[in-house]
C-alpha cells in the first residue's frame, strides 16, 4: 500500500465557530492540526503518497504541510471548484493516483479519529478479493448512522440509511469512514458532478454484483463533527486513549506546548491542551479542554470540557462548562457559560453579563 486519498473539503458547519477561519481538518487537536494525526498514522502504516481532496478554505493546507516531506510523505493537493460530495471528490483526484487498475487505494474521511488497524484493512481487501472494503465499527445507538449489515464471511449485504424504528435496526455495524478501493472502481465514479459514495456509489456497486467487504474494527473511533466531540477527541489523544504518533509530547493528564505561559498554581487536567503563546493565570482550573494559540485565561477562571479559540480572552473567575469560544472573542470577568453555548469569533461579552446559558 503506497497511496491514499484524504477527503478534507467539508465546510465543517456543525463545528462553527471553530471553522469560520480554519477548515475542519486544520483545527488543532492535541497541539497540532487534526489532519497531522491522520497523515502520521497513514505513514506509519506504510502509505507514501497521499492526495488531499480540498475545497473549503483550500488555500490553508499546502502552506502548512508543503510537499509532505517533513512527515516522510509525498503530498498533492486537488481543489474542487464546486462541492462534489464524497464520491465526486474521490473521482476528481483520480488523475493524481499512480496505482494500476487492480491496485488498492486507501480513502479516509477527514473528520474521523480512529485507532483502525490500517494494514489489517488492506490485508482483508487483498485476501478476500474485494472490489471495495469498508472499515465498520459497532455503536450502541446506530440511529444517526448508516447501517452496513454483512453475512458470515463479512461480505456487505446492504446499506441502510439512518434507521429509526427497532425493526429497521438490523445490525449495530456502521460505516466508519475508511475504505480501500481498487483503482479501477474509482474510475467508474461519474466525473464532474456531485456523487455520494454512501448513497450512490456503494449501493450501485452492490446492485451490480460487486464484492464489497466489511471489516469490523472496534478499537477507538470518534466522529469529530461537533465541538463537544472535537474537544473529547483532543483530550483522548493527550490521555493516550486514541493512538497517534503525532502528539507533540508524552501522553498524560495535560499537554503544554513550549511557548505557553502557565502559572505554577494553575491546574490543568483531563487531557487539557495549552497552545502556543497562550497564557493561563494563577489559580485557573482547566479540565478536559483545549486552549488554542495566543488565548488568555485570567486568574481564577474555571474551564471544563470547553474549547477556547485562538487569541480569545477569558476574564477572571469566569466559568466555562461545555462552551465553545470563537477566535478573538473576549469574555469579561465573572461570566458563567454552560450547556453547549457557542460564542462567535470576535464577540465581546462584558463582565458579569451572562450567568448561564443552556444548549440551543
From TrEMBL:
Pfam families named among the record's database cross-references: GMPPB_C (PF25087), NTP_transferase (PF00483)
InterPro entries: GMPPB_C, Mannose-1P_guanyltransferase, NTP_transferase_dom, Nucleotide-diphossugar_trans
Name of the molecule in the record: NDP-sugar synthase
Coiled-coil boundaries: none
Record-annotated Mannose-1-phosphate guanyltransferase C-terminal domain positions: 252-333
Family: Belongs to the transferase hexapeptide repeat family.
Native source organism of the sequence: Streptomyces celluloflavus
The Nucleotidyl transferase domain, residue ranges: 4-236
Classification lineage: Bacteria, Bacillati, Actinomycetota, Actinomycetes, Kitasatosporales
Highest taxon of the lineage: Bacteria
Amino acid at each position: 500500500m503506497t497511496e491514499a486519498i484524504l477527503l478534507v473539503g467539508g465546510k465543517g458547519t456543525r463545528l462553527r465557530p471553530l471553522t469560520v477561519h480554519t477548515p475542519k481538518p486544520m483545527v488543532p487537536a492535541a497541539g497540532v492540526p487534526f489532519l497531522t494525526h491522520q497523515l502520521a498514522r497513514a505513514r506509519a502504516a506504510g502509505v507514501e503518497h497521499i492526495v488531499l481532496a480540498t475545497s473549503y478554505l483550500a488555500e490553508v493546507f499546502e502552506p502548512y504541510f508543503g510537499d509532505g516531506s517533513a512527515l516522510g510523505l509525498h503530498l498533492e493537493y486537488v481543489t474542487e471548484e464546486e462541492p462534489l460530495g464524497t464520491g465526486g471528490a474521490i473521482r476528481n483526484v483520480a488523475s493524481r493516483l499512480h496505482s494500476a487498475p487492480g491496485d488498492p487505494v486507501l480513502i479516509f474521511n477527514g473528520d474521523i479519529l480512529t485507532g483502525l488497524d490500517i494494514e489489517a484493512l488492506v490485508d482483508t481487501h487483498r485476501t478476500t478479493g474485494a472490489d471495495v472494503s469498508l472499515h465498520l465499527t459497532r455503536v450502541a445507538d446506530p440511529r444517526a448512522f448508516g447501517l452496513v449489515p454483512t453475512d458470515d464471511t463479512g461480505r456487505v449485504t446492504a446499506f441502510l440509511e439512518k434507521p429509526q424504528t427497532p425493526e429497521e435496526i438490523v445490525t449495530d455495524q456502521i460505516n466508519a469512514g475508511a475504505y480501500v478501493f481498487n483503482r479501477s472502481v474509482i474510475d467508474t465514479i461519474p466525473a464532474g458532478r456531485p456523487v455520494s459514495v454512501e448513497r450512490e456509489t456503494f449501493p450501485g456497486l452492490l446492485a451490480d454484483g460487486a464484492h464489497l467487504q466489511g471489516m469490523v474494527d472496534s478499537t477507538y473511533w470518534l466522529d469529530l463533527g461537533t465541538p463537544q466531540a472535537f474537544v473529547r477527541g483532543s483530550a483522548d489523544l493527550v490521555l493516550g486513549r486514541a493512538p497517534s504518533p503525532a502528539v507533540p509530547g508524552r501522553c498524560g493528564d495535560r499537554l503544554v506546548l513550549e511557548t505557553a505561559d502557565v502559572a505554577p498554581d494553575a491546574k490543568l487536567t483531563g487531557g487539557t491542551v495549552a497552545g502556543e503563546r497562550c497564557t493561563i493565570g494563577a489559580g485557573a482550573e482547566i479540565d478536559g479542554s483545549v486552549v488554542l494559540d495566543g488565548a488568555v485565561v485570567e486568574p481564577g477562571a474555571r474551564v471544563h470540557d470547553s474549547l477556547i479559540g485562538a487569541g480569545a480572552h477569558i476574564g477572571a473567575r469566569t466559568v466555562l462548562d461545555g462552551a465553545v469560544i470563537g477566535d478573538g472573542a473576549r469574555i469579561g470577568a465573572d461570566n458563567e457559560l454552560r450547556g453547549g453555548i457557542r460564542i462567535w469569533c470576535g464577540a465581546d461579552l462584558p463582565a458579569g453579563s451572562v450567568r448561564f446559558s443552556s444548549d440551543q
